[in-house]
Task: structure prediction
Amino acid sequence: MPITLPPHLRDEYFDFEVDLEQPAEPPTDLDVVKAMKYEKAVIEAFDIGDGEGGDGNTTPADVAAALVYKASVIAARIPVAATPAWLEAALGQINNRFDTLNNALNATNARLDVINTRLDTTDTKLEEIETTVSRVNHTTAYLFNKTVGNGEIMSFKEVPFPDGTFPTKPPNNLPWIESVTALERMTDEQIMAYHTKYCPTQRRRPTRASQITQILRKIGYV
Result:
């Protein structure tokens, strides 16, 4: 950007010997020298007067303009420090390594996305398998219990609850219904727990005898 020249001064008490021209871009050494001479000339012209520019045409604003002009020329003359070649090479290598790292991370993320998709598919299949196994266990035990009478000679098989859990395993931890007699000997709380799990949609609680009958029906006896 071109440097703004200060006003061309003519002072009745001082003869300016500095003829300013638009400095080069960037300013040359001669431009700097001219700016310094101009500043000196303006200050001397100002000092010839009463110190406030009263006896001549040079004013404090003229002095300030000369100072600003010299500072602008010097600032424009100082070259911007160039980045050393070795530093540019090092920065280039670092940037290349970052690019390589980013590409590797993107590839890894893509692989992880594929793995996550496969895991989701596997989880879905496992859930389907668990559901199928639960149904098979229920059907197998239910059909077996229909063939052993009251369970006194050959014990009943454990029939899973509708939620897939087994009566004797956590979180239920109920006694095993080995036979009709074993069920009838259970406490009211145990029978109620069995009935609640086998008949989860039944809101009204039937009598103890009715609960036993419904439980036996659920395990294949009745």
Notes: The CA atoms of residues 20 and 34 lie 7 Å apart. The helical segments are 29-48, 60-77, 85-145, 180-184, 188-198, 208-219. The mean pLDDT is 84. Residues 88-222 form one domain.
